Amino acid sequence: MLRIVLVRPGCTEFDEQQRIQGSLNLPLSLAGVEQAVAAARDLGAHELAVVYVAPEEAAVQTAELLAKPHQIKVKELEGLANLDHGLWHGKLLSEVRQQQPKVYRQWQEHPETVCPPGGETLQAARERARKALLKIIKKHKKGMVAIVVSEPMASMVQSLVCDAELGDLWQGSLNCGQWVVLDVMPERAGAI
Fold first, then answer.
1. Which runs of consecutive H residues, i.e. helices, occur in the chain?
2. Which CATH number describes the domain made up of 2-189?
């Protein structure tokens, strides 16, 4: 059985300011580096085969810290790139909530029905994630791999592995630097 360690990168300054980061390429903040180091220390006892990562600076920095003690490769997968939030990039969550209260509420309650202006739908991002996951599962039938991705992509990956609906997207949200182990059951692997 394949086990996936799903890791959210340490925080960026946008995370700390509660700004929408989406697919913007930002480095870890000082606190984010500490979170990534702590995650790497916590995962040191796990036997990771490889670390897959979204092509984003904070995710790559976190992945490199995770891979170093294991002396394993970090592999970027474009399909793991975070959701493109379009015109919402850089906005404070409170700005979106105040300027577009109905859309914001719908985004919280039924995220699968909202597309950020000029951005990407959750369905499109989830399909990219599904294809990336299938590549990983095809290559690794058993053992343990890590996947480092930001939110909401982390929740989408988790929903695919756990067979959850997109409407439940915010239920399993990871905080900066947090991780969870997901088991990919053999009978479920082809259905992702």
1. 13-17, 30-42, 57-67, 93-99, 101-109, 122-139, 153-162, 186-189
2. 3.40.50.1240
Place of tokens 């915010």: 170
Within its chain, how far is the Cα of 119 from the centroid?
17
pLDDT tens for 67-80 read 999 999 999 999 99
Give the type of residue at 163: D
Whole-prediction pTM: 0.94
* Element counts in the chain: helices (H) and strands (E): 8, 5
pLDDT digits (tens, 9 = 90+) for 154-188: 999 999 998 888 777 777 678 999 999 999 987 77
Cα torsion at 163, 170, 97, 15 (round to 10°)? -120
